[in-house]
Amino acid sequence: YVLRIELRSLKPAIWREVWVAPAITLRQLHYTIQAAMGWECAHLHGFAIPGSGRAGRYWGVPPQRRFEPGEAQDDMGFGDQSKDDARAKVAQVLKAPRDKLLYLYDYGDDWEHLVTLKKIITTPEPLPLLAAAAETCPPEDCGGVHGFANLVDALADPQHPEHPEISEYYEGLEPGPLDQAAFDELASAVAALRPRPKAKRVR
After folding, report:
1. Residues 6+ apart with CB under 8 A from 140
2. What span, in angstroms and rounded, lies between the C-alpha atoms of 152 and 12?
3. Per-10-residue mean pLDDT for the chain, 203 residues long?
4. Each residue of 54-69: pLDDT tens digit?
5. Nearest to residue 97, comparing CAs of 22, 166, 157, 194?
6. Do residues 141 and 39 lie in contact, with contact meaning Cβ atoms separated by under 8 Å?
């Protein structure tokens, strides 16, 4: 599967193209997205099959059409009607090119990703594979889309009232296009998720 994964509501678009085996689980896809984007696997996540209108966004999708880890369920019944993302295969929810899936990371900052099946190919390449990417990933715990927008503005404008504090806290952060070294680092993180060859038994 050739998948395009794009963070929603941000300009310029932050996206990744990854190649995955359709037989992997949604939980395995979660780890692939984390590696490809540059997230740190520090928060809850979930998948949802989008509908129209309000159901076009993660929290508008009924729980029965969501796939979440057990940790997303709580004593108040939150998430107890959703399916286990570790038991669902990617091929069960993405079946034909242009099919879409929502991936939410961090229940709070609510980083919503749109996952689109671009095409189905046959390849000798080992999977998963990061094939292309654009823009650096936002930092963890920066307040979601609006917090990230404010962070970018503050970093770029020395006159911004929060510039000194944010520049110190996010020292070294450079939002914008990915350079080759950053891409190679993400690609290596994705490649590290490939299944290890089984050792041959010696008779």
Report:
1. 39, 40, 42, 43, 106
2. 12
3. 97 96 98 98 96 94 93 59 94 98 96 98 97 96 91 85 82 84 97 84 65
4. 999 999 999 999 999 9
5. 22
6. no
